[in-house]
Amino acid sequence: MSGEGKVVCVTGASGYIASWLVKQLLQLGYTVKATVRDPNDPKKTEHLLALDGAKERLEIFKASLLEEGSFDAAIDACDGVFHTASPVLLSSNVSQADVVDPALKGTLNVLRTCAKVPSIRRVVLTSSDAAVLSNGKPLTPDVTVDETWFSDPNFCEKSKLWYRLGKTLAEEAAWKFSEENRINMVAINPGMVLGPLLQPTLNASVKPILNLVKGVKIPCETYSWVDVRDVAKAHIQAFENLTACGRYCLAERVANHFGIFKILRGLYPELNPPEEYTEEKASEPTHRVSKERAQSLGITYIPLELSLKDTIESLKEKNFIIA
Ligand SMILES: NC(=O)c1ccc[n+]([C@@H]2O[C@H](COP(=O)([O-])OP(=O)(O)OC[C@H]3O[C@@H](n4cnc5c(N)ncnc54)[C@H](OP(=O)(O)O)[C@@H]3O)[C@@H](O)[C@H]2O)c1
């Protein structure tokens, strides 16, 4: 097993993506030092402690992004760090301080600790496509977004896109700090993440799928979509593959919410379409996201249809949808 004898830290381990990352790391034989804000909250820890291998190789630490030195104990003596912790608050009525400070100051807090630990071979940063494509350039069907794209903090700030601003500033600062402190860092930039949930609570990126199934009116926005299991796998490949470097965009497909509903109705014909749904809008052409670098990491992508099916079945199992 590739992780045998290796110790890694996962920050924000109770989250949607990080839970899958911890699961896959344990499956590969890694010892995982997992950070959560409240180790006494069973909603944050029970699903992790129930994973195969957890009893033998999972240790939980308390750490908070805005507390200087908070991650020292969890990162000490590690071979690698996966920094996923960051508030995922996608709605427009959150304050700048709620998302930007923990994303930016928190990332630097974690990296400052990493810089003091000589055993660390690589840091994998969970960035986002929010740090890639928020630059005001029109995303027309002839456009292919790739890793050379960077979001523009001024554009994010003017447009009050606080989550995107936080992720953009955090990734920018992380590259600068890593270069200055000779930290070997790789960034993962997923689109909107879906797929089955391990944690008991509903996370922000799966919520729109639940809304579509429940017939809640949502704006028909366009996103790139990727399965949480592929996102976790890409993090591990980025750590293990010695030649991995730079950024990796992750997107199986780009689709608007009506396009997602169209696939959902193919799987569950009884679903009622959302208000203002039209077949024409559902099939509207979109921009693309380059798959080349993700493929070089060995990511072949779970098809969106299967991700959607597994998302719905998981939401049913956890009683978010009453079948
Ligand atoms: N889901 C997506 O579509 C998507 C797409 C691209 C990138 N990402 C990135 O992936 C990462 C994980 O996202 P997710 O979707 O898995 O979200 P999630 O389920 O909401 O998990 C976020 C994690 O961050 C932790 N966190 C938030 N604020 C914190 C603070 N002040 N101190 C310490 N920990 C804090 C949370 O800890 P607690 O459990 O203690 O609350 C939680 O474990 C984030 O960096 C996000 O930006 C997500």
Describe it.
This protein is of the alpha/beta class and 323 residues long. Helix content is 40%, strand content 16%. It contains 13 helices and twelve strands. The strands form three sheets. It has a seven-stranded parallel β-sheet, with helices on both faces. The protein has a three-stranded mixed β-sheet with strand order 8-9-11. The N and C termini lie far apart (39 Å). The structure holds NADP nicotinamide-adenine-dinucleotide phosphate. NADP nicotinamide-adenine-dinucleotide phosphate binds next to helix 1 and strand 8. NADP nicotinamide-adenine-dinucleotide phosphate (NAP) is lined by residues 12, 14-18, 36-38, 44, 64-66, 84-88, 102, 126, 128, 167, 190, 192-193, 203, 205.
Ligands present = NADP nicotinamide-adenine-dinucleotide phosphate
Biggest sheet descriptor: 7 strands, parallel
Structural class: alpha/beta
**β-strand number:** 12
- Average pLDDT for all residues: 97
Q: What order do the helices and strands follow? A: EHEHHEHEHEEHHEEHEHEEHHEHH
- Tally the helices: 13
Distance between the termini: 39 Å
In one word, what is the shape?
A: globular
